[in-house]
Amino acid sequence: MRKVVGICLILLYLHIIVVKSLNPTLDDDVLGLIVFKADLQDPENKLSSWNEDDDSPCKWEGVKCNPRSNRVSALVLDGFGLSGKMGRGLMQLKFLSKLSLARNNLTGTIGVNIGQLTNLRVIDLSENSFSGPVPDDFFEQCGSLRSISLANNKFSGRVPDSLVSCSSLGVLNFSSNQFSGILPSGIWSLNGLRSLDVSDNLLEGEIPKEIGGLYNLREIKLRKNQFTGPVPDEIGACALLRSVDLSENSFSGSLPTTLQKLSLCDNLNFRSNLFTGEITEWIGELGRLQTVDLSKNMFSGAVPDAIGNIQSLRILNISDNGFTGSLPASMINCENIQILDASRNSLTGFIPTWVFQLGLQAVLFSENKLTGSINGAVDLSIDVSHQNLQVLDVSHNELSGEIPSDIGRFTSLRVLNMSKNSLTGGIPETVGKLKALNSLDLSENQLNGSIPSSIGTCSSLTSLILSRNNLSGQLPVSMSKLVALEHVDLSFNKLTGTLPKSLENLVHLVTFNVSHNQLQGELPAGAFFNTISPSSVSNNPTLCGAAANKSCPTVLPKPIVLNPNSTGTDPDSVPQTLGHKKILLSISALIAIGAAAVIIIGIIFITVLNLRVRSTMSRSAAAVPLSGGDFSSSHTTDTHSGKLVMFSGEPDFSTGAHALLNKDCELGRGGFGAVYRTVLGDGRSVAIKKLTVSSLVKSQEDFEREVKKLGKINHPNLVSLEGYYWTPSLQLLIYEYVSGGNLYRHLHESTTQDENIVNNRSSLTWNERFNIILGIAKSLAHLHHLNIIHYNLKSSNVLIDGLGEPKVADFGLARLLPMLDRYVLSSKIQSALGYMAPEFACKTVKITDKCDVYGFGVLVLEIITGKRPVEYMEDDVVILCDMVRGAVEEGRVDECIDERLQGKFPAEEVIPVVKLGLICTSQVPSNRPDMAEVINILGLIKCPESQEEYDNN
Ligand SMILES: *[C@@H]1O[C@H](CO)[C@@H](O)[C@H](O)[C@H]1NC(C)=O
Ligand SMILES: *[C@@H]1O[C@H](CO)[C@@H](O)[C@H](O)[C@H]1NC(C)=O
Ligand SMILES: *[C@@H]1O[C@H](CO)[C@@H](O)[C@H](O)[C@H]1NC(C)=O
Ligand SMILES: *[C@@H]1O[C@H](CO)[C@@H](O)[C@H](O)[C@H]1NC(C)=O
Ligand SMILES: *[C@@H]1O[C@H](CO)[C@@H](O)[C@H](O)[C@H]1NC(C)=O
User: Fold this and answer.
1) Which pLDDT belongs to residue 755?
2) Ligand with the closest atom to the CA of 566
């Protein structure tokens, strides 16, 4: 490519030379400029007027000619957007005196030695991307050069010694490059030099005493290099110096008193060096000084009185030094002072009153040892009505007393920092007048009282820091008007009350710390507060919400607890306390639980989320709306004309049905009747359920139809119905006999003496429990698939067979009731205390198979905790779901696991199952998963590897 370009250039040369020989009027300048242009890219077409067919280039854009000679004298292409290299075409411009290519995108090294253009007076290549070293001989013929700027490029290497040849040089600007090494000593003998700027390079070495020879020097900038050594006394000979910037180097020693001779000097910048010693009265001689920056050095001693002589002083920065004493009172004469930064010194005494009297813009005294009150200083300032104070930082001193209410008169204040003092009293109401206030920091004082509600009018506030005081009372609601707020720290106070809900308006918040107060109630809503870090709200005993790791007690509705002593005949005994509204309110709590679960097993959460999308209503089975029926009990005697049906074929009741129902063989009693065990003729045991309340049973046809349906249900986890016996006054259901007793006894009455307990173990292992949970889930899923709602789930209805498999009993019996409504259901299953879903009490919520999911959830918690769904203590009722939910939210799940399992369960299985149980007991039915999904979730939770480890305990 390069070769091609090179060949093209040669061809171009040849072409031009041929043309030139044909047309002798064409001058060298056209040739030079066309060749120069050929090396450039000109995306903005700025050089379109440069046409090789022109006789003269004098009218070309950026080209100036000497009117007498018609030769090109100036090429000024600043900001033309040119890129490419600076080519040797320029060497043809023998009469060029000004070359300015500033602010382009030129790259590469300076290949051609434009230094040989002996007429050049000005070279400006600043703000390009030139790189590499400047050729050693670059300046060899630069006798006429007045000004050179290579600033803001990527030049590197040493500044060439040939620079000494530029004897007429007045302006040298090599700033913002990567020049390194020491400056050529010849530079200090260029006594025409008026401006020397080599700032922002990698230069080193000392300032030699030869600097005194630069008697024309007006400006010297050595900022941001690696210069060392002291400032030589001889600098005082540069009597025309107006600006001295030696900042950000490693100069050391004390400043020479000869500086006092620089009487024209208006800018002294010694910032960030290693200077030591005192600033003495000499500084007062510099009567034109406007800016003095002595910051970040090791100056010591007092600021001299003479500084008060400098009336022109506008900015004084003495921060980060070791100045002591107090600022001289003479400074009241510095009428033009605008900015005073004395931060981080060891100044003592009071805040000088003149800082308020002179109308400064910025007063910074942080980290000194100032004492006394601010009040005193402000009070004495007679006329502060035309204040322009924008920044007042007196933080980290030893100030005492109160914040003056006159502070409200500084209406231009943007920054007010009084933190880390011993200020007392309250925050004055007048802060509300500080409409421009951007940052208010009053932290670490002893302020008391409440945050004035006038703060709401400081509409520019972005930072409000009031931490570590004794502030009390409520957070003013008006704070929510401060929509620009980004940082709020009110921690370590005694604030009380609730956080205003409207704080959610503060959409720009980045931090909001109210920890260590006495706040209560719910956190505001919104994206910020939902994800606020817990440490920002911690240590508020009653502040609640997900981020506070504390659920809001008023929000969580209680599950229904029916009075176990109720007779069930009074419809009013069904609690109506759970209104629809409360159920809706609990959604946030549900989401919180869902979110907690995601941490353990994300899959559960996703599954549950999927559930919520589905409509559960379509699967409702038997929610017939009814006004309460009349269920008076009518007892009739046995008619002996009964019908016995065994689904398996041969009815084999050799004995009469009455004899079967022997009291001694009673297995238990449920909502629908008593259950007896009997042995059939073939030696097989069956369980016979005698339905108690006959009037609740439908007609014989209805009864038989429903029972036959139930008889067809065949599932390993359901107790199968083997037959029935019907007379108008007596109905029996004949079930398979399950030998292992019911789950209730296993969980709550288990002893080693009990012969019915599986394998004679003292208690169920985790794997047995998990298996029971899974079995119950499967049975319910099967029932729900057949559109049968169990309605009566409880641990005493779960039988355990000889192999430890659970078998759910008593299903489908609600279908035998002539009418099905809430009241009937809840009175029939009243014994199922604590298992009943809340929607039974809520007339507006349809009852679906989700009520079984609720009961299942309670069962899960019961199986894992070994506790009854509702435990009556001496003077307390403990509701299992609440107890577990509370424990999960406080991260104490372990504590509620059955103690018989302690140390013998895999937490990674048990905890997700607990959470699954909680999700199943969601107050809102549609938030509960369906049983098929429960089975999937259980499958995901169970890790096959842990099977053996926890099986044999
Ligand atoms: C310089 O070039 C860069 C990319 O090469 C471009 O983004 C930038 O705008 C150019 N600058 C000027 C001043 O043309
Ligand atoms: C040197 O050049 C830079 C960049 O063009 C400019 O900002 C700076 O002011 C110049 N220095 C002096 C002393 O003029
Ligand atoms: C004073 O100097 C310090 C350190 O150089 C700097 O951080 C600070 O911004 C300066 N103060 C003012 C008001 O400009
Ligand atoms: C107030 O001053 C202190 C100490 O000087 C400093 O730590 C704090 O950041 C300042 N506050 C603000 C809001 O800038
Ligand atoms: C039920 O009745 C018994 C006996 O009268 C009493 O001790 C118990 O506290 C009652 N339970 C409730 C929940 O009212």
Assistant:
1) 46
2) 5
